[in-house]
Each structure stands twice: as C-alpha cells, then as structure tokens.
Amino acid sequence: MKRFHTSLTATVMSVLFALCLTAGQVFAADTIKLGVAGAHSGDLASYGLPTVNAAKFVVADINAAGGVLGKQVELIIEDDVCKPEVATSTATKLVTSGVDIVLGHICSGATKAAMGIYHGAGLVCISPSATAPDLTLSGDYPNFFRTIAHDKVQAELQVKFVIEKLGAKKIAILHDKGDYGKGAASLAKQFVEANPNAEVVLFEGVTSGSVSFGPIVQKVKRSRADAVIWGGYHSDASKIIRQMNKKKMKAFFVGADGLKDETFIKVAGKDAEGVYVSGPMDYSKNPLAIKAKEQHKKAYGDDPGAFYLEAYAATLAILNAVEKAGSTEYDAVVKALMTEYVETPLGKIRFDEKGDPIGVGFTMYQVRKGQFVELN
Amino acid sequence: MELEYFFELFLGGLVKGSIYALIALGYTMVYGVVELINFAHGEIYMLGAYTALIVASVLTVLGFPQLAIVVMAGLAAIIWASAYGYTVEKVAYKPLRKAPRLSPLISAIGMSIFLQNYVLLAQTDKFLPFPELIPEFEFWEPYSHIIGSPSLMILVSTVIIMMLLTYIIKYTTMGKAMRATAQDRTMAMLVGISVNKVISFTFVIGSSLAAVGGVLVASQMGQINFYIGFMAGIKAFTAAVLGGIGSIPGAVLGGLVLGMTESLATGYISSDYEDVFAFALLVLILIFRPAGLLGRNTTQKV
Amino acid sequence: MDTGIPMFKLSEIKKSLVVALWFIFLTFPIMVIKVNTIENFIAWRWRNMFMIGICSFVISLVWRYFQENEASGQRILSLFTQIPLVKRLKGMSVSERPTQDGVIRESNPMIQRIFYTLLIVMALLFPFVNDYQTTILTTALMYVILGLGLNIAVGLAGLLHLGYVAFYAVGAYTYAILNMHYGVGFWVALPLGGLLATLFGIALGIPVLRLRGDYLAIVTLGFGEITRITLENWDALTQGPSGIAQIPKPGLFGMELTTQQGIMYVYYLAVALAILTVFCTYRLQNSRIGRALMAMREDEIASQAMGINIARTKLTAFALSASFAGMAGVLFAAKTGFINPQSFTFMESAIILSIVVLGGMGSILGVIIGALILILLPEYLREVGNYRMLLFGASMVIMMIFRPQGIISNVRKVYKIDQGGQK
After folding, report:
1. Which domains are present in chain C?
2. Could you give the ipTM of this predicted complex?
3. pLDDT in tens, C209-239
4. Which residues from B are below 8 Å from C362, CB to CB?
5. Is B217 on the interface with A (CB under 8 A)?
6. What CA–CA distance (Å, rounded) separates A210 from C141?
7. Spatial CB neighbours of B104, under 8 Å, sequence gap ≥ 6
8. Domains along chain B?
9. How far is B239 from chain C (nearest CA, A)?
10. Is 0.80 topped by the overall pTM?
11. CATH numbers and ranges of domains, chain A
C-alpha cells in the first residue's frame, strides 16, 4: 500500500520534472527554428528525403554567413510518412517544439491535414512539392506557399501540347490511383474534354507497384489512342512504357513532373527515349542550381532526387522573407513572401496572394539521347 | 480482332499469374509445414533481387562476361535469400513454436517492417534500374511480340519449379519428413525426424524460390527498390490461399486464376477495380470451396 | 552465478564467434556494398562489416548468458513485473486470478478507487502539458478503441480479422461525406458511423460464416482492400484519392474553439469514448454473448451442441467489433480534419491486430497497454530519425519473443469450489 503510493508519487514527480525541462527548452529561443516535414520513411521516402538534404545545405551556408537576423537557423526534421493522420501529429510536434516557419509537407494530402494546425499557431508553410490546385486556389489555406506550380497549369500545357503540337485525336489517360496521379489525370481529362479536336478514349487507374502491366497496355492498344497521358510517378510509368515498346506501339507517351526526374531516364533506359514530359522550366543554366547540385554530389556522390531544387528554392525564399520582414511574425513574413523577389535555383521568384510562385512555370521536354531537351 | 484481343489478355494474365505463382510456391510451402503466414516472404523476395543487383553490378565493374554475371548473380541471390530465410526463422519464429498461433504472425509483420527499413537504410530509397539479366533469346525472336522471353522464362521456371517441388515432397526422404512434420510435429519428433532441420530446410527452399522469383521479376520490370516485396507478397499470399494453402499445384493454379482474373477484368471492365474483382473472386471461390481450389477439406473433429 | 560479473565459457565465446561470422556473411552484400546503378558507382563500406560483427558477437554472448543462467535471466526479465505499480495493475486486471492456494484474491476496493481517481485526474490534467503530447495521446486512445473493438472478434471470438481498417474507414467517411453534403454535425455522425460500420460488419460476416482460420484472414484482408479501392475510385461520393478536406472539429454548444482548445476537446472526447469502450467490452466479457463468443472460440462444434447459434454469434462478433471501429473512425475524421484512402491501408489493420496480440488477446488492460506502446513508440522513436521504423519492426519481434502470450496474458477464469474443511 505504502510502496504503491511512493512509486506513484515518484512517477508523477518525474513526469512533472520532465515537463518542466521540455517547457524550458521551448522558451529558450535564440535561434530561428525551421521545421522540415515530409515522408522520410516508407514507400514515398524518395520524394521527401531530397528536401531534407536541400534544407541542410542551404541552412549550413546561411549559418556560415552569419545566419538570419543575426541568429543561427536550426533545423527540426520530422517524418510524416505522407499520411494525413501522421502529418497532424508531426505538425503538432513541430508547433510544440517552437518552430518559427515550416518547410513542407511533401504530399498534398498530408499538407492539407497539417495546414490547419500551423494556421492555428500562426506559422507560414512553404512546400516544394504539394501540387494539388485547391491548396492555393480554394483560399482555405492562407498560410500555404509553394515553389512549384500547381497541377492545373501543367495539365493545360500538356493537353494543349498533345493536341496542337502532336496532333493527337484519341487520347488515353492513365493514372496510378494516387493522390497526385489521379488529380493530375483528372485535370488533363477535363482539358481534353473541353477541346473539340480530341477525345478521351480511355481513362483508367492502374495498380501502383503491380508486377505486370501487360493487360492495361493491351487495352490501350485496342483503344487505338494516338497519345497516352500519364498521371503518376516514374516507377510505374517506366514499366508501362517498357510494355508499350515491347508491343511496338507508336502512341506518344506524355507525363507530368512526376517523370521530370533524372532517375526516370536512368531507370527506364532506352525505353525513355522520345517520351514527352512537362516539368518546371529548365534551370540547368542557373548558377544557384548548379551550385546546389554540386553540393549534393560532393556530399552524397549522386544526383539529388525529386523536388531537390524546389526545396532548395523554398528554403532560400522563406529564410529571405524572414530576413526582409525583420521577424518571424506571421503577417510580416507573408507580406515579405508576396513582395520581395529572391534569387533561387528556380530563378528570381516571389509569390502571388494565393501562395503560388511567380516566375516559376512549366514547359515541355522530350527525352532525347538520355537527356531532357526543352521544346519550344 | 475480338478473339485476338481475348487471346492477348489471356497471355497477359498467364504471365502475371505465373509471377504470382512463382512467389506463392514458397509461401505455400512454408505454410504447409509450419502453418505460419510468413509475411516476411515478400521481403525475402526483395532481398534476393537486391543481392542479385549488387553482385551483378560488382561483376560488371570487374569485367566478367554476361553469362557468368547472370549465373553468379542468380546463385548469389539464392544463397543469400536462403541465408536470410534461415536466419529469420531462427530469430523470429523458432522461439515462438509453442506460442499462441497469432504470435508468430505478429513477429512476421515486425520482421517485414524491419527488413524493408534495413534495406532502405543500408542502400537507398530510390528506384534503381535492374539490369536485363535475361536476354532476348534469338530463337524466340519471331514470337517475342506475343510473349517476351523474360515472360517466357518466368512461365517455364514456374512449371519446372512446381514439378521439382512436387518431386522433392513426394519422393525424397526430406520430403517425407516434411510431410510428416506438417501432419503432426510431435509424432514426427517421436519417430526420429529432426523437426528443426526440416523446418530450416523448408525455409531455405521457400526463400530460394522467392529469390528466383525476385530476380526474374525484377529483370523483367527493369527496376527495384526496397518496397517491391510488399505488394508481391500480398498477392502471392492471396494466390496461395485461392489454390488451397499448403498445396503446391494449388499455388500455381491459384496464381494463374488470380492473374487471369485481373487481366480479363482489366481488359473487359476496368483496371480501376482490378483488385476488387480479384478479391471478389477469392471470396466466391472460398464460399463454395472453403479450403481453396485444391485444398483438402478436412472435417473438423471435436 | 550471483556475483553479477558475467563469466563465459570458451565454448560460448566460440559459438558467439560463429554467430558473428554468420551475420557478417549474411549482411555482407547489403551492408558492405552499396551500389547505385543510376550513377554506376559502387561503394565498399568495410566499417559496417566490423560493426555488424562486433554487435552480433556481443548480442549473442549476452543472449547466451541469459539462456545459461535461466534463473537470473528470468529475474531480470521479470523485473518489470516486480514494480509495485505494475504488480498492482496486474492484480486488478484479473482480480479473480487464483492465488497459489486456489482462493480467489480479493482486491482492495479502496486502492482501486484511489487508483482510478488518480488515473482520471491525470487524464483530465494531461492536455495542459503540451499540444503535441495531447495529440499523440489522442491518437493512442483511438487505437485503444480500435484495439478493444478488434479484440471482440479476434480475442473473444477467435476470428482472425485482417481487414478491420475497413470499418474504421466507413466511420470516417460517414462523417466526412454527410458533413460535406448535408452539413451533418459530429454528434449526429457518431452514432450513424457506428451504425453503418455495424451494417458493414454484418455484410462481411454473412459470406464468411463457413470459413476458418487463415482462409477467414485472407477474405477479411480482401474485404479491407476492396473497401479502400472503392473509396479510391468512387469519385462522385468520396472525391477519390485527393480526399475530403476541411472536416470540422466537433462542436461544443456552438462555441468557437481555438486550435489549441480544439485539440484538448478532441482529447477529452477520445478519453470519454475510450472509457465507454472499456466499459462496454468489460461488461460484454461477462455477459451471455461474451460467454457464447468465448465458447465458440474454444470449440465451434461443442458450443453448437450446447445450443449456441454459431451463425448468429459470429455475426454478433463482427457487428459489435465493427461498431467501435465506426465510432473511432468518426472521431478520427474530426481530429484530422482531412481524410483520404491512404489512411486505411492494410498496414493499418496489421498494426491494430498487433496491438491486440501484443497486448494479450482477450485482456482489456493488455490491449490498452499494447495500443499505448505500439502507437506511442514510433512517436518517441522520432528522436532516432531514420532508424524509427527499423527499431519499430525489431521491437515488435523482440516483444513477441519475450512475451509470446502478450504483455498481459488473459488468465482463464478458474472457478474452484471450496470443499469445506479440506484444505
């Protein structure tokens, strides 16, 4: 009986003590805390980890040059596995650990779930990769910014290109049933349907990660489509293209920024030849982009991976806004993001009142001899 | 046109089904002997393929001829996958032999998560191109538009492995010991069968089958990452149950039926609901044959 | 060997050396060689090899030490259960647990009352700690509800269910869809979600009445997948994979709550719902239905002979267990404010099942502890960054090895008739 009480008291005391400690940490803020949230494990990890690397490089550079507003920038990195329910915990964790600004999240779904929590805490978020149109267009997420154009811009460009430049009449649209893929594919479908010169002959989702795409490719062949528009990531796409080439199909294959990744060309190899891809404008000449890529190559020995430059730009943009605003206060940072131009690997950018980047656009590429070649 | 379309879908289903069958064979074998749904089987499949990739890359750099690379990568995949299967059994399942039936299942799920992240951390999160270990055979060239040689290879391997396994289980001493262990473990021990050895052997065989499957599928797909085992594992499990879990020909039949259903459903209805049809078929078959297509329906005793 | 200093025989060291060599061989291709076929480079990381060798050697040696000294090993392992608080908890979980002489131990009602009061006070004060802790505890509480719900099917009725997440999804989508189209509020959606999930439970139950064991498992797994795929594809109703956003938090008499207050409010709701679930399942265990479920788990044919309607009992098990998942789903939608099919994958079912098995099948307290461990563990493991899921998987295996019966194994009730005078 007595021992029971003692142990309970001890437990309560130690819990309280631990809490005091954490509370103490929160208020000892002499650094600017940048939260980095995204998928760092699980099947989508390869889309979240490059962002972490980008943030690390930028912050290391800025800290070496004296930091922001005379303070050092500290990274607080949290995993959300691209799952909405985990993202809310991640967001609360970041808010509780006293972050001032947030870089993330990576997936649109997780972003939507987390944004309310940041908004409640008066935090500005900037995502390198969440492309769902309603994140900015709906006006529901005023604290959300991104360094990538949304899917609508891209779908319109793709469809226009496929119909006008490639002269396709029958278009098959495939997607991976995912948040990003199906969203992009549905937008493309809307634009094709709005165009009198072409029709959608097939609109279907495939099972991502499937061991064989033979049957669906057969179906595309039967639909006699001139062009296939793909909504999704590159891993499934390269399997489908491989099957199409084996069947000696002539249809054009058109993908979105999910394919605009060196990994796609490397993985798909010779099958990637001739594939059309819409993606962010070509930055390979931009000195900052070259620098960013070299930093990665030096540290890890390989190319950076998806959304690396966008993340690099987002980190630069948000830290610049804090510098220009003179504080991390919400209104000031938002105003700075919307008014102050900043030099990034994506060029000189600022943001419109909805949170979309100005100065970042999409263009069409074709894979030729293992390179993305910009088309005019 | 209509008939040709059906024929092509049929072939597509055959290829897909034989992939499922190949992985399901290992699944069903392990289940037959230890009655454990080995969720880590998909990860063994992935590890086999990854080992092949690593060995092939190293040998390519060292300048080995193509044929040697293929043979050595395949052998390495089988050796290491067996080693992993053996170790996983010893670490995660053996201590749980006498535990309640669900405990090894949870241990298997934990092992599956562990192995995935082990490869993620030790290697990379990115998709990597997988070399085409199986070349386009020249003699097959005229028919390659119907069915490519890698697919043909998968089909043939599945049939050969099925026959080989059936032979091992039916006619060899080890096979007899396996059957005895499956029927009654205590009794098998009493008549002098080393149950531990039998179970280890089962895991080694099952894992090497997974490795063969992994290498063949990865080289057909041309890519690999740490996550490929998960989907393959679930589908193979479904195929094994469909055919009657524990039955070797059942696994092949189950795989083929599953692949065929998915292919025809995609072709004639919609690939949106491909998996729905697959699972709906499973439910239907199990309603009428509660032990799967070729499973023996044991009468329950009180 | 009570000196405390481990002494090793030469043969043990030899054996451990073999183990170390085996692991070096095993992990050689994956750990030592790093290939990147994109950049065509190969890195040799020999350091890893030594690390693996040393680690596995040490672990193996320690392991052997414990095995050799069974007694002291047991003592250390049971150290946890010796902590007075835990002991007390264990006593309470199965208050009828017979002591050695077969007499059912009376647990002191006074202590129980104090303990429960303290627990409730702590639970009520908890949200004032910080928001993050509150959020993750809310999540853990939702998994307590899910675990207890699944426990009815798996623990009590012995029906292995791998698609439990489907009912959770039904609940969440009930609230989200009704709210989006008709503006239905949380309090209306809560019972509706439970009800709809119950109907789904019955709908699943009917076709699988004849199935047993692993065949049942795969069909339920299929059912879970079918539900998820339907959610993904039925755009008109569910908005497909892009999900439903802006789901309102539950209302409190029309008051406007700040984000922080909202988090606290949802937490209290979760506490209330969890207590309700504990109460219901506790009462269920000792009710007529509960007994029927357990009888069916032990032996279907025998229980049928005793007059239990197997079909009805199975359906009851599915329906009851689904209803809790439905309610948890509604709460989930309200808490997250955004749902999409990504949250309802097979892995989720596997985690819930792990909670039940790890906690100890059929034991309420066990399931609660299991949920707290499995949900809070990955959160606290965030400190180790990338190694989070690796350690999570490993700890699942280790926990199972050390406590195969679950953390708190359900002790079968023993009724002993005191044969007057014959002690």
Report:
1. 10-77 (no CATH), 129-402 (1.10.3470)
2. 0.88
3. 878 777 888 888 888 989 998 998 888 888 8
4. none
5. yes
6. 35
7. B36, B92, B93, B96, C400
8. 13-136+146-288 (1.10.3470)
9. 10
10. yes
11. 30-148+285-360 (3.40.50.2300), 152-256 (3.40.50.2300)
